[in-house]
Design brief:
By secondary structure, this protein is an all-alpha fold. Helices cover 63% and strands 0% of the residues. Helix 7 crosses helix 10. The radius of gyration is 18 Å and the shape is globular. Bound molecules: adenosine-5'-diphosphate and nickel (II) ion (NI).
């Protein structure tokens, strides 16, 4: 029965996010779901909570819905309609509210399930996929690939994170390169290593091409 709820939730999310253009599309959710299953199994987490939270984690995001409150109440309504008990709905909603990066201002996570889903989401922001997503996001908001006049921001409010002056290359220094050390679980720490190295290599090559000597 839990399996059926997971499948119909996946179907609902898929239809809701079809065509989403800022890197939060269904394929992001599917990858996070898959990562979450892998990490959650290894860490012996509650897989019903992990899977529902992974599938629903972006439906309260201000890029997908009008505001977080509306998103959360819609998720709550959906889960109740599927007959999910309150002792599952509650942690799922809690996870969705707490895992987002939003400039590094996130709260400390309590449950193992929250840690698993956050790690799965963060793994999808780094490595080759993370690079692709950073430039997709930039394209969707008209942000440059790289602007050497911008500074790397060390501390950001949620507002700065969304609206400040930045470029995709800056985003690596403001967020993506930090994620490896912010992983919660041993499984994700190991998965992050190769992806992190690939980003370092990418940046090295980028600046090599950028600063080409004139002869
Ligand atoms: P989260 O929901 O985990 O906080 P975001 O919504 O901030 O993640 O970002 C979604 C995707 O877009 C991520 O892959 C992230 O790295 C990328 N992204 C967010 N802000 C920027 C930016 N200013 N430049 C390039 N990529 C960005
Ligand atoms: Ni996400």
């Amino acid at each position: 029965m839990n399996e059926e709820i997971i499948m119909s939730t996946a179907e609902m999310v898929r239809s809701k996010l079809a065509g989403e253009g800022s890197g939060h599309d269904w394929f992001h959710i599917e990858r996070v779901w898959r990562n979450a299953i892998k990490i959650g199994r290894a860490e012996k987490a509650d897989m019903f909570i992990v899977q529902l939270a992974a599938l629903l984690h972006d439906l309260a995001d201000d890029k997908v819905v009008l505001d977080e409150e509306t998103g959360l109440s819609e998720i709550n309504y959906w889960l109740e309609g599927e007959g999910v008990p309150p002792n599952v709905i509650e942690p799922v909603l809690e996870i969705i509210q707490t895992i987002s990066f939003k400039g590094g201002t996130g709260k400390i996570l309590g449950s193992l399930e929250a840690k698993v889903v956050q790690d799965a989401d963060r793994l999808d922001a780094i490595g080759a996929i993370g690079i692709a997503r950073a430039f997709t996001y930039a394209g969707s908001v008209g942000q440059p690939i790289f602007d050497p006049q911008y500074e790397v921001r060390e501390k950001m409010t949620k507002e700065d994170y969304r609206n400040g002056k930045t470029s995709s290359i800056h985003h690596f220094y403001e967020k993506l390169l930090k994620l490896k050390d912010l992983m919660n679980t041993e499984t994700a720490i190991q998965m992050a290593e190769e992806r992190h190295q690939f980003m370092e290599q990418f940046l090295e090559q980028f600046f090599k091409e950028y600063t080409v000597d004139e002869e």
